[in-house]
Write a structure and sequence with these properties.
The complex is a heterodimer of chains A (495) and B (104). Chain A is globular and about 65 Å long. Chain A contains 17 helices and 13 strands. Chain A has a single domain, classed as Amidase signature (AS) enzymes. Chain A has 495 residues and is an alpha/beta fold. With 104 residues, chain B is mainly alpha-helical. Helices cover 32% and strands 4% of the residues of chain B. A two-stranded antiparallel sheet of chain B has the order 1-2. Chain B is flat, with a radius of gyration of 24 Å. The two termini of chain B are 35 Å apart. The relative contact order of chain B is 0.07. Classes of the chains: A alpha/beta (495), B mainly alpha (104).
């Protein structure tokens, strides 16, 4: 087997464009890699080999004919299985949708294909995005490429593990409370949750629509920026998507660039260190994050300690809002419009729905029930309304912090990756792991996880960067700085 | 508040979910634990300003009148019951161009 699978997306694209390699040749090598490696990782739910090969041939033909070429030419991209792809099963890792084939593309898919990217297949996840470990999947857990006895993180575990194990250079995930950043931290790759509204959610199967965003996962910052450029921007099919001019007060087009390290240092970014949250993390995480902070100090970044209040309340508020929205969003799965083949004859409407909806997994059922509870008469004010007030307090707190700082630094996850099965029966323990990631979803601000190092057991640790809304460029700059210093794009698991 | 067996059964009805009798107690325990965690929200004392829930922060970029008209496209045309034409939606159970559903 050749070594082409090791290339990051932008290099693949350059080589295909320069006719150093054929798209078909590259894709064939990638298939070999996936067939060999995914038996151990379980990151794919479905593969799109036939049409992928056809698309690769079309790309080679386009080059030969001197046709206009897209910015993501020939880059294979894996898609989380809750993002609709025309004609390709979109199961959300759920038994209830195991046969569902979308009749349309999500906007992000249309935009990737417009730039000549290749949709290679659908990736494993926690059912409907509800989980922190990618163990709650009808298709079995995703294994961490750095140690296959450990979880890959979730809910976009397949998206992060496939990139980490060199099966694809780029993937898309979705992030409702850390679902891109957690697996990126656990698998040592880069992932960004964009500002709420930067990327269209049209075609994303909704779990909690006021919190979630689609974002790219890759091994290099260049790939992240290129993919984000392709998918971001206003979409008439999603009225929560923002146009460039809508980012009031921020004179910025949605186009992200890779600056030189000197250029980044010249921007004199002010960095806030979220000290209270770093202190509450596991000691190896804390040590690793402090090393990264020292690196910033050595390069004369303006670094100051700060704190975020109310994080404990934020976690409770997040789960109230997320479960409330889930109970509403998942009510559409009545098995008439979407679902599996089960004859409704002889059933009354409610009993049919209840019966077929018993095919949801345990965690999904629990969240629907909890969501119905917090919205029920008598409890709405006690839980949901109060959670919304806390959400506003958190947003105000970030507004104040971003008057002082350009970027905030904290760990992505408070602990190291854990063993598969270790926490699966303890939902509250899993919820508590989201404490650092849910903040940006509540506030709608962008957040990125980048590889920071490893524990003494060889398990990955991630660093989280937060910036103000529509300031993704700051995150890309800081990530570029760390990539240059640490060369984390060369950290590859031996699988 | 203490959640009990009957509350879970009621929530199942509201949510249109079936849970095996053997699983009810386990589900009840986990839901109780989650709700106890949510009760943390009661510990936060909000001052008068914060207690005023305001949606003034929400921006509407497009006025309702400026939204586009609904369009009938091949993506949204579904199954035409009168003409019996099949279109792009893959309804699971169909007969003579109609969708079969349970009785209402």
């Amino acid at each position: 087997m050749g070594e082409l699978h090791k290339l990051p997306g932008y290099q693949v694209s350059q080589k295909i464009r320069n006719q150093e390699i054929f798209a078909e040749e590259y894709i064939s090598q990638l298939f070999e890699r996936i067939d060999k490696v995914d038996l151990k990782i379980n990151s794919f739910i479905s593969k799109n080999y036939e049409s992928v090969l056809l698309k690769a041939k079309q790309i080679d033909k386009k080059i030969k004919n001197n046709e206009k070429l897209g910015s993501l030419l020939g880059i294979p991209i894996g898609i989380k299985d809750n993002i609709s792809v025309l004609g390709l099963k979109t199961t959300c890792a759920s038994r209830i949708l195991q046969e569902y084939v979308p009749p349309y593309n999500a906007t992000v898919i249309d935009r990737l294909e417009k730039q000549d990217a290749i949709i290679i297949g659908k990736l494993n996840m926690d059912e409907f995005g509800m989980g922190t470990s990618s163990e709650f999947s009808h298709y079995g857990p995703v294994h961490n490429p750095w140690n296959q006895e450990y979880v890959a993180g979730g809910s976009s575990g397949g998206s992060a593990a496939a990139v980490s194990s060199l099966q694809v250079p780029v993937s898309l995930g979705s992030d409702t409370g850390g679902s891109i950043r957690c697996p990126c931290s656990f698998c040592s790759v880069i992932g960004i949750k964009p500002t709420y509204g930067l990327v269209s959610r049209y075609g994303l199967v909704s779990y909690s629509n006021s919190l979630e965003q689609i974002g790219p996962i890759a091994r290099t910052v260049v790939d992240i920026a290129m993919t984000l450029n392709a998918i971001c921007g206003r979409d008439s099919n999603d009225n929560t998507s923002a146009s460039s001019s809508a980012s009031a007060g921020i004179d910025q087009q949605f186009e992200y660039k890779i600056d030189s390290v000197d250029g980044i240092l010249g921007k004199n970014y002010k960095v806030g260190i979220i000290d209270n949250l770093i202190d509450s993390s596991e000691y190896q995480v804390k040590e690793t994050v402090h090393k990264k902070i020292n690196l910033l100090k050595e390069h004369d970044f303006s670094v100051h300690k700060t704190k975020i209040n109310y994080s404990d309340f934020a976690l409770a508020a997040y789960y109230v809002i997320a479960t409330a929205e889930a109970s509403s969003n998942l009510s559409r799965f009545d098995n008439i419009r979407y679902g599996f083949n089960y004859n409704p004859e002889g059933y009354e409407w409610n009993s049919y729905s209840s019966h077929v909806r018993s095919n949801f997994g345990e965690e999904v059922k629990r969240r629907i029930l909890v969501g119905s509870f917090v919205l029920s008469a008598g409890y709405y004010g006690k839980y949901y309304l109060k959670a919304q007030k806390i959400r506003k307090i958190i947003k105000n707190e970030f507004n104040k912090l971003f008057k002082l700082f350009d970027v905030l630094v904290l760990p992505t996850m408070p602990i190291l990756p854990f063993r598969i099965g270790e926490k699966v029966a303890k939902p509250l323990e899993l919820y508590n792991l989201d404490i650092y990631t849910i903040l940006s979803n509540l506030a709608g601000i962008p957040a990125m996880s980048i590889p920071a190092g490893f524990s003494k057991e060889g398990l990955p640790i991630g660093l989280q960067l937060l910036s103000n809304e529509f300031n993704e460029q700051v995150l890309i700059d800081i990530a570029t700085f760390f990539e240059h210093e640490d060369k984390f794009n060369e950290w590859i698991p031996s699988i | 508040m203490s959640t009990n067996y009957n509350d879970i059964k009621k929530l199942c009805t509201l949510s249109r979910l079936e849970i095996d009798e053997s699983e009810i107690q386990k589900t009840l325990d986990k839901i109780k634990e989650t709700i106890l965690f949510f009760n943390k929200l009661d510990e936060l004392e909000l001052n008068d300003n914060e207690q005023e829930m305001s949606f003034n922060d929400m921006k509407t970029e497009i006025k309702i009148d400026d939204l586009r008209e609904d369009l009938k496209t091949s993506k949204s045309s579904n199954v035409d019951g009168i003409n019996g034409k099949e279109t792009s939606f893959n309804f699971l159970n169909r007969k003579n161009g109609y969708v079969i559903g349970p009785r209402i």
